[in-house]
Amino acid sequence: MKPKIGRALVVGGGISGIRAALDLAETGYGVTLVDRAPHIGGVLSQLDNQFPTNQCGMCKMLPLVERDAGSQYCLRKGLFHENIDIRLSTEVVGIEGEAGSFMVRLREQPRFVDPEKCIGCGECAAVCPVDVADEFNAGLSERKAVYLPVPHMMPNTYVIDPAACTRCGECVTACPTGAIRLFRQGRQDFGVLVVDDEYTVRDSIKEWLVEDGFSVETAGSGEEALDLMKKQPFKMMLLDIKMPGMDGVEVLKKTMETFPDMAVVMMTAYATVETAVEAMKTGAMDYLMKPFDPEDLVSKVIDVYEIQEASRGEEVEAGAVVFCGGTEGYDPSTGKNTFGYKKFPDVVTGLEFERLISGTGPGGGQLVRPSNGEPVRKIAWIQCVGSRDLQTDADFCSGFCCMYAIKEAMLAKEKGPEDLDATIFYMDMRTFGKTFQRFRDSAEKDHAIRFTRGRVHTVYLDEKTGKLMISYPGENSQRIEEAFDMVVLSTGQQPAGGMDKLAQTADFDLNQWGFALAEPFAPSKTKREGIFFGGAFSGPKDIAESVISAGSASLCASVALHSAGRGMAEVTGDAPEYIDVSIQAPKVRVVLCECGSTLPGGIDMKAIAADLKTDPVVENVFTIPRICTTEGWDLLVEKAKAKGYNRLLVGACMPYAHARRLKELGEKVLMNPVLMEVEDIRAPAFRYADAEASYIQKAMERNLRSGISRLRGVDPLPKTSVPVARKALVVGGGIAGMTAALAIADHGYPVTLVENDPELGGNLNWLARTIEGYDVHAFMDSVRQRLEKHPQVTIHVDSSVMSAFGEVGNFFTTIETGSQSSVETLHHGVAIIATGGGEAPANMYSHGENDAIITQKELEQKVSDKQIDVTSMDTVVMIQCAGSREEPRNYCSRVCCASTLKHILHMKKENADLSIYVLYRDMMSYGFSETWFTEARKAGAVFIPYTVDKKPVVSVPGDGSNVKISAYEPLLDANVEINADLLVLATGIVPSLPESLAAAYGAHVDADGFFQEAEPKWRPVDSLKEGVFACGIALSPRSVTESVATAEAAAQRAMRILTKSALSRAGVTARVRQSLCSLCERCIDVCPYGARSIDLDLQKVIVNAAMCQGCGNCASECPNSASVVDGFFDGRMLDMIDMVIE
Amino acid sequence: MEDFEPTIIAFVCNWCTYTAADLAGTSRQSYPTNVRLIRVMCTGMVDPKYIIKAFLEGADAVLVSGCHPGDCHYINGNYKARRRMKLLKAILPQYGFDEKRLKLTWIGASDGIQFARTIRDMVSEIKELGPNEAKHAAVV
Amino acid sequence: MAKTSLCDAADQNLQTSLASFFRSMLGQDEISAIMAPMRLPAGDMVMQTLVTNPEQVDQIDPFAPAFPMNAARLVSRLTKRPAGGKVVVVLRPCEIRAHIELVKLKQGSMEDIVIAGIDCAGSFKNTDYKKFAEKDPETSTARFLKGVLSGETRFDGEVDLSAACRACTHMVPNGADLAIGIFGMDIDRQFLVSAETEKGEALFDKLGLKEQDAPGKREETIESLVAVREKFKNEMFEDTRSKTDTPEKLAAYLSGCINCYNCRVACPVCYCRECVFVTDVFDHDPYQYLRWARRKGKIRMPTDTVFYHITRMAHMSLACVGCGQCSNACPNDIPLVELFTATASQTQAAFEYEPGRSLEEEPPLAVFKEDEFAEVVEVKH
Fold first, then answer.
1. What is the CATH number of domain B8-132?
2. Closest Cα of chain A to B24: distance in Å?
3. Are residues A849 and A961 both part of a single domain?
4. Is the dihedral angle over the CA atoms A14, A15, A20, A24 positive or is it negative?
5. pLDDT above 70 (res A312)
6. Between chains, do B19 and A1112 touch, taking CB under 8 Å as contact?
7. Closest CA to A849 of A986, A988, A985
8. Is residue A530 pLDDT above 60, yes or no?
9. C294 in contact with A, Cβ within 8 Å
């Protein structure tokens, strides 16, 4: 019996939804993942290129340990994990109950194409007469009413857009497998009763509806109608209000008494509209106003019919719900300033630009002007369209547009002509993330992308030249006009549609901008217990932050499930005892699916079978009409049950779909699924659609031969595994370390926390409050107290890591404590590095020469200790980026700008007359802190931009008078001199992660000393070496709340490992054939995951089966096949090459 | 030479180019029938032996194709593959296997069109070059 | 600048003076043994011999034109794991270079050896050496050296230096700790000893050698010898390439191959415990042979011959030091070294890699740079 495990519901299948679902699934929970779109991937399915590699890499999110539980193919093709149940075209309509036991009501859109039957041949789309804008291409191209939602999806099931479909039925006829049902056939059973005293009315309605396939009865009066209803069942009634005798309202009342489910639509003239509205309270579903269009009436009936027939509501149980609904792109045509969008075809949004250059885009990836197809030679990006804009109620920064604009500009350079000129018009380039600043610098220096500061006012078309003209303020506020071939609007993020309704349904709050409102210091928590947010649902985020946020949300969900008693129990279903065939010579049985009659004519299955049988390894060949049907599958099972063979090759279509079922088949016939293969024999018919049948047949034969060849070499190996020490070590006791430790301990696993200082808390010890006014100390105390009391937590303060070694599941760390120098060695399965960081030293702008020159941290402390009296001051100057964002500290520290704004607002509150000047390069008030930037300007603070080549100059007069700051003011084109009572330097953050500590765990630090993540977007808290994670400032500069998010995300990554007593070896994993190995260690050098090591005592190269990802670099490096990847053995590969060359 | 239809063996990585090849199929980007796909997990898994074998068996061209630099699912397998290709390009042409017969490309998951185009271009280039002599040589 | 010394040749006999030089090494405490080519007690053959007894160094004859095997394979055996003593190994330049490659491949180490490298005048093929030596075993080495130093490559009108040696331009022992020089020397009177490394210098000092400059004409002699060989090499490459520039011609070139794999056994850098071609990877199903024959009409048996040789090039051409042992080992006299060095010169140039040049240089396939070899990648937009 399988023990009950917790189940979570994840709403939204975009990047954060996928991350949350995978995290929970890998931890061992069941997950229901719903998305209202007919595909997963969200907006990411439309984007091919991500900063900073300008490539994709989404697949790096897939499970690395226990990876056989999920799919191992491009995420664009879809997602599969045995613990995740994906429901597409589905919405959440209700959440009842409480944390641990929610009942969630789902509603699925009507399905017209049976995914079990659809083979993705596209015959339906070929005959569909409807053309509508294709949302996948952001409306830049057209699609049919029956279409593939994304071109990559596997299986490539077509869907029907009910809003666009005219139900003409052409596709139903064209479909070779009978997969499409438009419910037209069912309309015969859908009885409609038309009640009207006017004969012509009821008769013409009947005629219209009968033509559309409905069965219709008419009644001339209320009494007649009620009589008819007693005799035969109706699903729907069209009911006139004004009738002699019993009127419509009366009929309605009587009907509702006996047939409460009847769909009644009132028919009314203008005079009785109020009555009709009244009638809806009595139970009418809707009303139609006379006179009506036949089309309106028929489509109303069809709607009712389809909702009744097709909408399948369902309730699912879930212990926790994670909303990852994402955001919506801003539509500039709805704004006050449209910048010519929708008016001039060469003005496009950022997303449209991505589609234009995509290989799956409307133009196949060519960068040309939409207006005339000419190459783009000069292109501009306009930043902050729909962001940082009070006119569109978007007083927030979308946070990701600056980076995507830079990326798009670089892609334009790559795809366009060599001399392409790319310009970005911006207010502040918000390069606040890790590596962003260097990316920007490289764009400017290495890729010659022009960055021009200034808000663009207008885009208009020069009719003569056909060019787009941009007008913007230059130096001295002079207006400049410049011509471009194409203009890209860097559109921001907006709350997803329907947030209000969803908030009501799920009972969470929205913030002032319409995003989901998170609790203080708890970035993923809503006010309702058991309901969480991930990704940009609670505010604009880029991919990396969304992934972190999703990790944080899944961690919270996991805690909720665990505390509800539903967690962590491992499902230990009896592993089937497969029949051992290891000493038998291979005998392959081949079962071919004839695929109904959908294969092109002229293909001779018998000839294929005869040809295959010439190979002595082939035991026999059978054909089955259609494997995808239940009968077909049963036939296959029957064929598989017979004896006399030990390898099974199935020739069918859609190997992705069938491969999953092989596991099931294996359990039935006790055959190890690795001894079975599905070979795609339909693909040749697709790929070589124009070829002759004989050619296609040959190609099918070749495919089958390579399948045989693969099976011939299969050697089922015993499942090995790596045991896990189910304990965690957290290095660093700041807020990140404490949060991570607590999160793991809350799941019931022992955690040891090591902190250098004699006290926990890190930077929170000196940080008093946040910009929102939240009390940092109170928060820190509550976390610390919980931690100190937690039975699973061991805290070592005044301690440090002396040495460490090991691999995922088994690390050994020696800790040294304080003056007593006590030493202890721990055995743990995962390590989380949270060593934090601190304020960068102020070795510039005369800091230290005068008491009036202080750093931000010093200001924070002095304000908090009331050592500074703002009321007695006249002028305060703040210099941003003191030492930051230029080499050698060429990164943004993220927190300083918000901190500056916090201090401005505080000081202005104390002394409204105080003059505050902020000398800045780019104000990095990303996300909602933009609002504080607006507030600070409203409060009268003066912001003066400077550039690195024209930095402010600080002089300290020897006479004790005020500090003098001289700065260049670009609007005046002159230097200004400011005498300040106080000069505050924002020096930024430096990490305190010793390189040796990272190295001891097999991890690395980056150029700036922060933890080097495995992948900046898809694996932002992991190291490349499995089992080692980082969070907080060790990872990159972050605010308190952001640090909490990373800590929770890191804890969640660790939980995937800790919840297992052993990590088992995946099917495609490398191993060493020791008797052949010469110990040259080249395989160790080329392994990207550090999964190989040499055991000097045993004189053996060892592969950690849990860490190995099966990439095979070791195998191709090994000259004599001593290193092999199961599933890709050289002998088998050579054989396959042979097979396909014929 | 009119009837010569070259055989191209394409070693495609599971993540990027295989997806692109699939995509070319589903989006009905017809490409020549000359290509025989062999899916590997990573281009870094393509052992030089496979390529030598393919040529000796008579393949008229070999394509190795995987993720773009920086996009390798396995971090850097494609960079290692590039070195192996460099090596083979220093060996094979000496024995009359023209360098044009051996190609390495980066084709991302969305580049179905590019995949189809690459194959088409290769076919026409190899048609011009003529068949691989080893096709009929009695040796492997 | 390396320390050099001139050692006098007693009785105008290079061999006896070399013997006493090496005997003095064995007298040093830290040196446990010497491995050097020595005349075998019976017959004319010269073989690497491991000597611990100073009295038995007499038969040392490192300059003999006999090269029965590349000693890097032996040094690898001695150094793969700790041997418990330091050994002086007397090696030809191609043996040193092969050993450096093996160290990179973790097949040996530099830890417990002192490499005494010799100026290499070359050698005959094994069969030719026998013919040459049996005429007058006692004087054969001296005869040979004098001939080479006066520019001869053909001896007694019947035997030539091996092709590998005639094409070899690595005649001085780079990478040795101590180098023993004969080029530019009057070998009846003296030979040159130079300390090339710290290790070599320590021994040099211990041996109490006095510092003397090398004669000026040494460089000149080497240069002119190298120039001749360079020319031969280029002609050899050209000739070989013209004989193998199509698959058919290559097959013909290798037609004598019987898949005995002796070439790879003799190869110093083919370090695999067992060649992949003798593993189960090539254990074909009988059905497979018939399929091949059917496809092409006929098929040469044994199969996988050309496949083997090209694969071997992919595996070891980057590390090929051109020692010629493959040719020496071939029972059917296939001119393998010509073929392999011609290809190796291409692959090594492709990566600007020279095997044996430096321990610090990583084998090219073990490393990569993100930004390199753009010409290998087909780019289309």
1. 3.40.50
2. 8
3. yes
4. positive
5. no
6. no
7. A985
8. yes
9. no
